[in-house]
Design goal:
alpha+beta, Collagenase (Catalytic Domain), 4 helices
Length: 120
């Protein structure tokens, strides 16, 4: 995929969790025994009221967001993390170099919409 899918609606569940909860989710779903700032789960696509609707989940560890914000405000870093998660549920990925570039370009595009630009 790797695009924002304008022909699809999204039903999004957003959860804020502690570092220990995030570590458990990361271990359970990614096999990584470490903390992370965001996990995204692209769910099923259903037909609701004649529109394609994708059910998705995003989990954010707000403590991790605070720890990694650097000179940015918490709000700026939070929006960057949320944008990253949203792009993942839209099918973006950063494993291969070409896909990473596409995702970074999309992040840069949306970063401009954040007050302050979300840039250190």
């Amino acid at each position: 995929m790797g695009s924002e899918q304008p022909d699809t609606d999204f039903e999004l569940s957003l959860a804020f969790v502690s570092a220990s909860e995030m570590r458990n989710y990361n271990r359970l779903y990614r096999g990584k025994d470490s903390c992370t700032d965001v996990l995204s789960f692209e769910g099923e696509e259903l037909l609701l009221d004649g529109r394609k609707t994708r059910l998705c989940d995003i989990i954010i560890d707000t403590n991790q967001v605070f720890q990694q914000k650097g000179s940015k405000t918490f709000s700026e870093e939070f929006w960057l993390v949320l944008i990253h998660g949203l792009l993942h549920v839209c099918g973006h990925d950063h494993i291969r170099t070409a896909d990473k570039k596409k995702m970074e370009d999309a992040e840069d595009n949306y970063r401009k919409l954040i007050p302050g630009g979300g840039i250190e």
